[in-house]
Amino acid sequence: AQKPPPGACVSPAGPHNLTCVSYKHPSVRGALGDAGAAAAGAVRCPPGQCCVGIWNRSHALVQGCWGGRGDACPSATCAPSPAGHPGSSVLLCLCHGHLCNGNATGTATAVGLGGPRQGPG
Fold first, then answer.
1. Which of 18, 44, 53, 105 sits most deeply, having the most CB atoms within 10 A of its CB?
2. Over the chain, what HEC string results?
3. Residue 34 within any structural domain of the chain
4. Domain count, the chain
5. Per residue in 54-77, pLDDT tens?
6. Which top-rank group of organisms is this from (predicted)?
């Protein structure tokens, strides 16, 4: 398992001023969280919130801040799991690392992400 770089991990007890990738696919209707327009960007979340990412099998649907309790986001990285019924094509992750919802790790297939990719260098 890959360890996050120093400073990238925030205590699950309460992330403060966490920055998350912000994106909303044009097919998504209505207001979901703090996700903005179709252009991917970054959003600074209110204290206590963490990052959320929702994908289907081919692209990002929504990325932004999650207003749930801090203990709902124990991981510093985004490891998507199926949302809804078993076999669902929708994947969801909650995480508390800087821009962690821009990368989906641990998926069997490559997941297209709306936000900027993080990488070495």
1. 53
2. CCCCCCCCCCCCCCCCCCEEEEEECCCCCCCCCCCCCCCCEEEECCCCCEEEEEECCCCEEEEEEECCCHHHCCCCCCCCEECCCCCCCCEEEEECCCCHHHCCCCCCCCCCCCCCCCCCC
3. yes
4. 1
5. 998 778 899 999 987 657 788 999
6. Eukaryota
